[in-house]
Amino acid sequence: MSSNLAGRHVRTQTSSIIVTTVCFVVVALLLTGLMTHVVATMTRSANEIDDARANRAARAAIAAFVSRLSATTTDNAVWDDAYKAISSPSAADWAYENWGKTSEDYPLYDGAIVIGPDRSSIVSAYSKGKPFQPGAFFGQAFYRQIDTAADSVQAPVVNFIKTETGIALIASQAIQPYEEEGELPRLSVLSFYKEFNSDVLGTLSNEHELEGLHLAAAPAPGLLNTPITDMKGGVIGHLVWPSKAPGSAVYRQVYPYVAAATLILVLFLTGVLLAGVSEARRLRKLAQAAIFEANHDSLSGLLNRHGLLALLDELVVTDFSPPRLYLIDLDGFKAVNDAWGHAVGDDLIRMVSNALIACHPEVVAVARLGGDEFALVQVGTAARQEIEETILALFAEPFKIDGRTIEVGASIGAAARDGDIEPLELLRRADMALYRAKENGRGRAIEYDPELDRERQRVAELESLLKTAIGDGAIEAVFQPLVSATTGAVTGLEALARWKTATGNISPEIFIPLAERCGLIDALGGHMLKTSIEHAKNWPGLALSVNVSPVQLCNPEFAVEVISLLQELDFDPRRLTLEITEGVLMTNPDQARRSIDHLKQVGIKFALDDFGCGYASIGALRQFGFDRMKIDRSLVSALDQGSNGADVLKATISLATALQIPVTAEGIENIRQAAILREAGCDQLQGYLIGKPMSAFDISNKLQEQAA
């Protein structure tokens, strides 16, 4: 009986082993099949995704090539000087000097052709600086393009065209004045062409990550391609390049691991117990690591915010030596990342961390709270000034990293844990002190004072008053005259914001930055613009200048809102000039450019305000298409301070005049200043000598008096 039981037990175990083995074999086969399918699918998908990206990149490369030549053509064809010159007897010489000679080594085009108003006579035709016959070089397709371009005055006509030597991109546009005045006669046509040669292909290849890009007459087997069509839609060539096939490359790398995974499945039964023990040990280590990571910064090894708060909560607070918290923010750390890269920035963080840990014997803990913000906990009797001086001394000498000399400073906010305040409140107080230290300038240390809370409350109350004032229209517009430097006649008015309260006037230097910080600048700017336009409608013939905050200009909806307001109030956009400071050119140049271009399309003008007090260059005036430059009052006041103030001012005006940008001088307070500026070429004057800011009522009276 026992033998039978034992036999059955053995058979049962054998069956169990067989069943288990079969199950694992089946599971192994299923896993292998699924893994094979997944790898094959991922390989194919990765290849297809990258091929699709490459095709989009190729089309984008062609579009970029077309866009560059189109923009170059428009810059030269829509040009008052060109329009006058091509209509003169010296048209051929002028065209050669400005376009033909340049084509010899100019990167944007290889040839320049000017066709006369009869659409057949060649005024000028140069390729690589030498005369040539465009009809022979391009064929009849060239003159078909000329006919189309002559009838399309506004935009260039751009097409790929077959040439004697290959394929070229040609852009044609009627030569016309910048602003159309009446009906134009038949216009000459300017054409630029750029050969689609190896240099161009190399540039497009680098810009759009298309290695091996080249030109072929027909698609090549095994290569990706995109067609190039002429003006009739006919294919005249193909851009071809090899596929990167990233999926296949990855597959070749992971193939050994797939084979190893199959072998691991076979050995799984043998290692299951050992794996279980190992997994238990690993989980214990992971739990310990998780606890450490939850309280420490991964880069520096210091405590993080959570760990700092936990430490502060555990510290015993005594009246004799209460813990003191110092928040330290590095000054200039972003510049280090921008200049040397994040790897050097990380090395600097680690060096600063090590220095803070050892800076003073009473420092019981150091934490890293963010990118370049640290916290330091002091317990002991050392004076706060001693700790702060010790910290600042760490940054007195530059850091040396891989042969680089890195200079950073530090701002410090300190707070003592008096009484029973919670760690979060202590952190908040130190943060407020740090914020004030950064406001006061670099390398400062500030201790928390209850006055900081009271000041923040006052700012909050002022924000509320400002919001109410904007909504109620309590912020009014006053106007300061802009006069012609030659005639003295009022040619325009600049609108300025004034806020009068029951307790006195609040300076724009206070409430405008406040509006920018608390998100009210769009509402304030919109109110000022609307109010100013409503008044300016009563003064026909005078231009209106309104200041715009950089924050407004960087709002993607700003241009649409301004245009909508002009339409609503039926105000001529050509009378409006928006004045902006150079700060917007530094903070968000791309969005500023988009807003400026959009508004200039409807006729609004732009003036660069306060020129000469910051970093804006003469080049920025041209790059951003400014219609006027306003010289900062500091340059004007320098006229009365001797030295070389007059020379600097005259040089500035001369540069602007050379760029054909009119100049307004503000802050004029005496006749001598006005005379110097008038002689230097300044065409518009503004200041207390000309007229102080006045209410709309006073402006109307002044204009009536002048008219009488």
Structure explained in plain terms:
The protein has 708 residues and is of the alpha/beta class. The chain has three domains: 59-242, 2-Layer Sandwich (Beta-Lactamase), CATH 3.30.450; 305-448, 2-Layer Sandwich (Alpha-Beta Plaits), CATH 3.30.70.270; 472-707, TIM Barrel (Alpha-Beta Barrel), CATH 3.20.20. It is 51% helix and 20% strand. It has 25 helices and 25 strands. Strands 17-18-20-21-22-23-24-25 form an eight-stranded mixed β-barrel, surrounded by six helices. A six-stranded antiparallel beta sheet has the order 3-2-1-6-5-4, sandwiched between helices. Strands 11-12-10-15-16 form a five-stranded mixed beta sheet, sandwiched between helices. Helix 1 (2-77) packs antiparallel against helix 7 (246-266). The longest helix is centred in the first third of the chain and has 76 residues, at 2-77. It is flat, with a radius of gyration of 37 Å. It starts with a helix and ends with a helix. Residues 1-11 have low confidence and may be disordered.
